[in-house]
Every structure is written in C-alpha cells, then in structure tokens.
C-alpha cells in the first residue's frame, strides 16, 4: 500500500471512529427532541408559550440530573458536538425566518424603539448584575442577550462567542423561562389599560420589543387578536435580526478588546486579536439570500424545519450538561436580576410607546 493510500485509509478510519463516538450522544438527544415535539403537538403548555426549545432544555436537564452521569463516557462527545457545531449551524439557518422587507414594513419608528429597548436592556442587565449584584460577567452578558433580543436562541448564540460555562448559560435560560412565561399572563392584563392611550397595533410593537421569547410573543398575540399579533411578531423579528450586530459588538467590547496600555507585542498576540463570529455573518447572509432570491416556500419551510431540530438538539445538549447544583450555587441573584430587568422591559416599553404616541 502506497503512502498516499495509507493516509487516505487512516483519514477514513479516523472519520468513521469519530462518527461512531458521536452517535450515542446524538441518539440520546434525538430521543429528547422527539419527546419535546410530542409534548408540543399534544398542546401541553401551549397557552404559556412553552416552545419545543424550552421543552428540550427542560427534558435535557431532567435526564442530565438522573441517569446521564452513568452514560457520560459514551454520550459526552455527541453532546459536546451538538452544543457547538449544531448550534452554530442552527443559528445560521435561523436567518431564513426573516427578510429585509419584513423589517422595513414595520417602519423606522418601530425599528428605533426596538433598538432603544435592546441597548438599554442589555446595559441595565450588565451594569446591575456586575456592579450591584456582583455576578460574574458571562452570566450577566448571557442574561442581557436573552432578555434584550430573542430569549434562549440569543443566549446560545452569545455563548458561542463568549465560551461561557454551562452554569452561566443555564442560569440565563432559567431567567428567560421564568419571566417570559410570567409575561404571557401580565401583558393581556395590561392591554385594556394601555390601549386607552395607544392603538392595538402599537401595543403589538410594545409586546414584540419587550417580551423575551418568540414563542411567548406569539402566545400573547394569539390571545389579544390579529392586529396585535402581526405587529408583535414583526417587531420581535426586528429584534432577532439585531442579533448579528449584537454578536459583533460584544465580541469586540467584552471578549477581544485590546488593552490600550499594553505593548505592541501584546496587542498583536493571538489572544488579543478580534475574533470575528463568522456564523453571525452567515446568519446575515441567509437573511439577504431569503430576501433577494425567489426561493420556493416549500424549500424555506424545509430549511426552517431542519433549523428547529438543530436548535432543539443544541438545547437538549445544554440541558444534559446542566447540573441543578449550579442554580443552588448561584443563589437568588439571578432571579433578582431577572425581576429587575423584567420590570424595566414592562415600564420602559410602555414609556416609549406613550412617548411616540
């Protein structure tokens, strides 16, 4: 056998071996995803905006804190693969949820409101968490991303940039689940009071610019009517599209910022260079592609179906890696942070709508 043939054989053997190592973990994740899908199809938790993504992480946590430790030697590689590679692919394909036309149809005023809510919410979360509550930077950044953009999907995308620990991710997702679910009950109560001063359509922008998860926005919209639902979903999609520039910003500001007082040698070292989150560029590229090419709706639906599965798998992998002890170690600070930010989203969102009304 020639040297070239030997190399090809070794490469093929390595690929097969790596694939086999991934299969047990991916199979376990597939079971969790299937159960999550069944729960949604049965309508369990639908009125509370519990999406397949949320079910995946919850079921993953249940398994992760029961018998997962007994199988970790077989499943760890597949779980790690889903948390990293499949997550990034899922975020890229998430761009097919959006088009440029959708954003512009909402109007510049709504886009400005979304931007104001995003920036102010993230700054509040980070400053209050790190300065007042003395929480670690990663947990505050991830919580800020989830509250200000699009919930668990934003947390996972930001975690890909920050390389945050599982404990920080889990705490941030818990805040999103808890207060996002609470929003589903509070916003319908606010609707008759606030619409004495603003239109139902403007209330939809309020919902879309201040509620955590896409599924939670949809749940509120369905309760309050078509006018509210349409504008709420569009406003939420504008926040989602802001995920890409947000990732660039936090990559530069928090994780790749050069120290101006360091030497030129230190500034040019690999650890100090700005690491571009390429999956965010691909995410924007998919939005542009979905906007300019006449793709068949059946193809887009298929892509979104695959994307949903990938994100569910990433969430299940996160749940499997989460130990309940991390929440106990965090104490009440994550929940205090979530409560303060939740109050800000409600109050600032109404204030902006009244200001522009």
Automatic annotation (TrEMBL):
InterPro entries attached to this UniProt entry: UPF0324_pro, UPF0324_YeiH-like
Membrane topology: Multi-pass membrane protein
Entry's Gene Ontology cellular component terms: plasma membrane
Keyword entries, A-Z: Cell membrane, Membrane, Transmembrane, Transmembrane helix
Subcellular location per the Swiss-Prot or TrEMBL entry: Cell membrane
Ranges annotated as spanning the membrane: 21-40, 52-74, 86-104, 110-128, 140-162, 168-191, 203-225, 237-255, 275-296, 302-322, 334-356
Family per record: Belongs to the UPF0324 family.
NCBIfam families for the chain: YeiH family putative sulfate export transporter (TIGR00698)
PANTHER family in UniProt: INNER MEMBRANE PROTEIN YEIH-RELATED, UPF0324 INNER MEMBRANE PROTEIN YEIH
Name the record gives this protein: YeiH family putative sulfate export transporter
Gene: yeiH
């Amino acid at each position: 056998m020639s040297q070239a043939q030997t190399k090809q054989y070794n490469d093929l053997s390595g690929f097969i071996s790596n694939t086999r190592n991934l299969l047990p973990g991916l199979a376990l994740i597939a079971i969790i995803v299937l159960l999550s899908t069944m729960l949604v199809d049965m309508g369990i938790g639908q009125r509370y905006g519990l999406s397949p993504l949320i079910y995946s992480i919850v079921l993953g946590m249940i398994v992760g804190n029961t018998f997962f430790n007994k199988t970790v030697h077989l499943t760890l590689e597949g779980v790690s693969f889903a948390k990293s590679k499949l997550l990034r692919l899922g975020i890229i394909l998430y761009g097919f949820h959006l088009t440029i036309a959708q954003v512009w149809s909402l109007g510049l005023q709504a886009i400005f409101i979304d931007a104001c809510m995003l920036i102010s919410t993230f700054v509040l979360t980070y400053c209050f968490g790190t300065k007042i509550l003395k929480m670690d930077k990663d947990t505050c950044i991830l919580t800020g991303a989830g509250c200000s953009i699009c919930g668990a999907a934003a947390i996972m995308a930001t975690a890909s940039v920050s390389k945050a620990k599982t404990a920080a991710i889990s705490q941030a997702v818990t805040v999103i689940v808890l207060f996002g679910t609470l929003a589903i009950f509070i916003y319908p109560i606010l609707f008759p009071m606030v619409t004495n001063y603003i239109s139902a359509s403007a209330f939809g922008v309020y919902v879309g610019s201040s509620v955590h998860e896409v599924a939670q926005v949809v749940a509120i919209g369905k309760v309050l009517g078509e006018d509210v639902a349409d504008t709420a979903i569009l406003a939420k999609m504008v926040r989602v599209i802001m995920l890409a520039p947000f990732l660039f910003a936090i990559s530069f500001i928090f994780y790749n910022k050069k120290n101006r007082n360091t030497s030129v040698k230190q500034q040019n070292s690999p650890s100090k260079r700005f690491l571009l989150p390429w999956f965010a560029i691909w995410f924007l590229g998919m939005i542009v592609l979905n906007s300019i090419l006449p793709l068949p709706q059946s193809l887009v639906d298929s892509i979104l179906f695959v994307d949903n599965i990938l994100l569910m798998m990433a969430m299940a992998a996160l749940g499997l890696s989460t130990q309940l002890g991390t929440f106990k170690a965090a104490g009440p600070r994550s929940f205090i942070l979530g409560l303060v930010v939740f109050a800000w989203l409600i109050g600032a969102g109404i204030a902006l709508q009244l200001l522009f009304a």
